[in-house]
């Protein structure tokens, strides 16, 4: 793990259990809204043990990172550039999930040749948000956190492949969210 100062705030980056080595190619993992670095544990450990630097960042205001949470995708994309600067990384691949995918896309458009590869997981534009999740986030933040965690990592049912097409946790979450996969509004 690394704790580095980015824009004057402590920023936590999980490194996959390996020390950061600027001579290796770097992959930056960007989580979705209300998540943290832990959504990337398996991917980061694999890549760290196969010749890559990994930085699974906790965005500002999330989990172990200080600072205010970004109020826009553009603000978060600027943070990714500042993160690369603070870590001394000249070029990196960006991997983003959900809201993180929109951040990665915007960061790639701003950072140009500093981004070697771009991976977007669970992305959509516009990224619609369930009215139930919006309501919970405004009136019962702990309920909203629980909903996001269930949507993101539910292990309460069999894997979708065991149940056939459009079944399992993904279908349950889709139905629960009112037909929209929850993420953040732009």
CA-CA gap between termini: 30 Å
Tell me, rounded to a whole number, the average pLDDT.
83
Main sheet: which strands, in order across?
1-2-4-3-5-6
**What would the CATH topology of the largest domain be?**
Rossmann fold
User: What is the count of β-strands?
Assistant: 6
How much helicity do the residues have? 25-40%
Query: What's the order of the H and E elements?
Result: EEEHEHEHEHHHH
The CATH architecture of the largest domain can be named as 3-Layer(aba) Sandwich
Outline = globular
Q: What would you report as the Rg, rounded to the nearest angstrom?
A: 17 Å
Could you name the CATH class of the largest domain?
Alpha Beta
Q: By CATH's scheme, which homologous superfamily of the largest domain applies?
A: Alpha/Beta hydrolase fold, catalytic domain
How many distinct helices? 7
Task: Quickly count the domains.
Answer: 2
Structural account:
The structure is a single chain. By secondary structure, the protein is an alpha/beta fold. It folds into two domains: 2-121, Rossmann fold; 131-176, no CATH class. Helices cover 38% and strands 18% of the residues. It has a six-stranded mixed beta sheet with strand order 1-2-4-3-5-6, with helices on both faces. Strand 1 and strand 2 form a beta hairpin. Helix 2 packs across helix 3 and helix 4 packs across helix 5. The protein is globular. The model is unreliable at 157-186 (pLDDT under 50).
């Amino acid at each position: 793990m690394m704790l580095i100062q980015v824009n004057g705030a402590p920023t936590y980056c999980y490194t996959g259990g390996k020390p950061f080595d600027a001579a290796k190619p770097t992959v930056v993992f960007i989580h979705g809204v209300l998540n943290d670095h832990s959504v990337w544990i398996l991917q980061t450990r694999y890549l760290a043990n196969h010749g890559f630097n990994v930085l699974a960042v906790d965005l500002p205001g999330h989990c172990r990172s200080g600072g205010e949470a970004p109020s826009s995708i553009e603000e978060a994309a600027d943070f990714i550039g500042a993160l690369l600067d603070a870590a001394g990384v000249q070029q990196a691949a960006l991997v983003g999930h959900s809201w993180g995918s929109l951040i990665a896309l915007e960061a790639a458009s701003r950072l140009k040749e500093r981004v070697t590869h771009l991976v977007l997981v669970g992305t959509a534009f516009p990224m619609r948000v369930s009215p139930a999740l919006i309501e919970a986030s405004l009136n019962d933040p702990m309920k909203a956190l629980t909903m996001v965690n269930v949507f993101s990592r539910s292990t309460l049912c069999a894997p979708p492949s065991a149940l056939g097409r459009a079944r399992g946790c993904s279908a349950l979450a889709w139905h629960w969210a009112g037909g929209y996969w929850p993420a953040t509004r732009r």
